[in-house]
User: Fold this.
Amino acid sequence: MKGDMDDLSQYGINLTRLKHVAPPHKWVVENDEWKPLVQSYLACVSFVDHQVGKVLDALDNSPAKDNTLIILYSDHGFHLGEKERWAKRSLWEDSTRVPLIVAGPGVAQGKVCSKPVQLLDVYPTLLELAGLNEDEKLEGNSMATLLKTPDTQWPHMARTSFGPGNYSIRSERYRYIHYNDGSEEFYDHADDAHEWKNQIGNPELAALIEEHRAFKPETFHPVLGTDSTGHKAYKASEAAKKQTSSFDSLDWKRPVDSPVFTTTHGNNHDSVLFVDPELEYPYHMIVSHTPEAAHLWRAKKFSWSSADWELVSDQYIIGKHYEYDDGVKVDGTYYLYEEGIVYTFSGPLEEASGKWKAAGTFPFKQCDDIGIYYEDGVFHMFGEHGDFPHGPDGTSLAHFSSTTGLGDWKLVNAKAVDPNPDGGHKYGVGDATIEKIGAEYYIYCDRESKGSPYKVVAWKSKDINQPFEYVGKAITPRSDEVDDWDNHRIQDPDIAYIPELGRYVITANMMDRDGNPGGDFPTMKGNTTRVIGVFYHGDVQADPDKEPSK
Assistant:
């Protein structure tokens, strides 16, 4: 269902999407593979059913026919597109629920039992039915009474875990899920069998939720040191949690010293980084260049260096603009913003050159050089507002919102980011980028002052609709004495989360005055040149399969 994942925590999404080998849901839909995959699954079930039939036929023809207990079960369920997933290893119903069929002496025939039981209950059941002594070390509960009387009282719930701290509790009617970051889910199967609506915040269900919380597992086994996709997924989600929970908004490192997203033309700026783990190439970057064309880069594996990226096109046509402010991808559609025009495209970015549609507008005279953020059906735009007398930036960042992203923009706050709360025009701000990290929203933007080069500064707020407070300088240029690519100014940041690394990155313009690399560009003064660099948060880890450095 569209929007099904909107009420889930990022940790819960990460746990089931990071480091998995199953085909991404987007690929399944775009390549019309849903029906064939379901057919394949049903064919597998039919084949297994046939083989089980052979075993039962052999039993019926044996002396053990009347004194054999048969228990048929599987080790896990499987998603067939539910929760945008095509695999096992989740804490939702389709992955944790398995068939359990019991037949034999003393078992009620033709009955269905709706009580929640676990595979841990199978062995204690066999002990009791075989007349053997109970093993006190076992965690399960004998189902013997349910096999005889399916509607008898059953005080137990079923537990499933996925790494320490991640578990689900299933009662006869409800499912409760707890993740290791503290986030939760709660579903009522009486009217929501597909677990579409997370009701963890429903006050009418508070008492029931507490009942399920009480069944929390007492102990957790550590994740084994194997290289399975399940272990990789858990480690990746934990790395992402660590990055979020201990986020230092000013802890940014410089890019590696290798050529960085440049051409011989010397004017590469205003990057827009798109991250979509479900694509064959998860990373795409549109880099502004000239009014005639932008550049499109892509990568299968994230790298700080452009040497590991592919330049798809240096003649990438969007509109007739010198630069492009920011973009976002929502429900398969790309939105790109510049000078009051909203461009859209649905499909692979590699096929979009010359096909972008001017689909909407925004109030750029009140909100220019914008950053865009999408959440819960609302587009949030932050851009330059007012005239800064010492440069091209605004005296503040204004906040506009829209439900379409194409028009009907409403002013939320003309001074959502105010660099001069005491009045005057000491600082100008512009070129924002927005991200929610943990419980707070962060804005990174340019800040300039008279006689001082551009630098990137950080702001934060617990509520995106409230004013942001200043945090500090995040990325500053090196001095003119440093023979490097960023010895003049840093500007136009774009922040993104990189799942395979479990950390955030910022792409930004780096300008120097010596013309290298890239040579001279006619519209730039003093032999200056601009390239795109990738700044990373925290310590970078060379092998993304390993946990980030402490």
